[in-house]
Amino acid sequence: MTGDCKDPALAGEGQRLIEWADRSMPVLASIRGQWERTRPLAGLRIGACLHVTTETANLMRTLKAGGAAVALCASNPLSTQDPVAAALNAVYDLPTFAVRGEDNDLYYRHIHQVLDIRPQVTMDDGADLVNTLHTRRSELLAEIIGGTEETTTGVIRLKAMEKEAVLRYPIIAVNDALTKHMFDNRYGTGQSTLDGILRATNYLIAGSTLVVAGYGWCGRGLAMRARGMGANVIVTEIDPLKALEAVMDGFRVLPMEEAAASGDIFVTVTGNVNVIDAPHLQRMKDGAIISNSGHFNVEINIPALEQLAVASHEARANVVEYTLADGRRIRLLAEGRLVNLAAAEGHPAAVMDMSFANQALSADYLFKNAGQLEPRVYAVPEPIDQEIARLKLASMQVRIDQLTAEQQAYLSSYAIGT
Length: 418
What we know:
Elements: H1 11-22, H2 26-38, E1 45-50, H3 54-65, E2 69-74, H4 82-90, E3 96-97, H5 104-115, E4 121-124, H6 128-135, E5 146-149, H7 152-163, E6 171-173, H8 178-201, E7 209-213, H9 217-228, E8 232-236, H10 240-248, E9 252-253, H11 256-259, E10 265-268, H12 278-281, E11 288-292, H13 302-308, E12 309-316, E13 319-324, E14 329-333, H14 339-342, H15 349-368, E15 377-379, H16 382-395, H17 405-411
Parallel strand pairs: 1-2, 1-4, 2-3, 4-5, 5-6, 6-15, 7-8, 7-10, 8-9, 10-11, 11-14
Antiparallel strand pairs: 12-13, 13-14
Subcellular location: Cytoplasm
Binding site for substrate: 53, 125, 150, 180, 184
Protein name: Adenosylhomocysteinase
């Protein structure tokens, strides 16, 4: 099976980048080394719709080392690293269908080409592969053992499918693993989002007012990192508990309508639609920068911005400046898509090491438990989470204590009191 990439001549560059990332992914490398010997995925077909990055490439290499037949497509039109796609096809013989900037038709053609391998396990980043299977390729569902989902947005979609009893096979919510969201979402998104904003704008974070929409794990990490760079951080929220946490963490919490007038930089990380809407755009100051680090480009109401604007132009790569009727300029980054991937390289490999270890071990779990799971959304089994944390600590040469027999007995007893 032959993949589709922008330029096969980029394969050499892609291989160098993949090998560089691999040096920071010791957990995944240890799994790959073991699987090369044991081949636990032999005979399994895996269809993956993920961001085509250097880290994803090392996950694909690991699945192949385990014996699986794998095909990969992009989960976002602007997140593909073209040299990586070329190397996966030419160097690693892993069929990859991804071109940075592909239009909607090509995006879904690539999804269908991955589905043409008749996968038994799916790997998703946003649930577009699962959705396409259920709506346009339902004849393939009978062969599906299960799937994994990497993102908060995808898990929301899948839980909605489960609630309406239309989900046809079990999905493991990799996003909800502790070794995923506590590290990938918080430290990965926090660093990579600011990296994307800086690469796109070269704007000074220190002294600016940065508005974070959403105080989930991604929002927590972003707010923390922005404050560390000297920003005055405002948080907007709809959940009273998360809003209270943000206040206790030392951030200002305001409704978006109020924050809109104060912000220099805005970042949405909610997984919801029109978080920045027309009324907010009408209150923003001249030169405001708006960006999104949620999975889909719906968190900013871009059609409303286009209607309000009397002119627009590309001010820099990944920056479109819209001029409103009153002369104010609003700068949209990366077409409202994931700014950390569209304008930068995404999360550091060291944190994706744990996320993709979860993907690999969850695929192994699904294969071993084929036919035993109901069609619903499952948590990553705790032993997998614990093992990944143990392997990561070992790779960092960090040792921890273990319970003594006396301590184990104490924790399992109800008889010992004051």
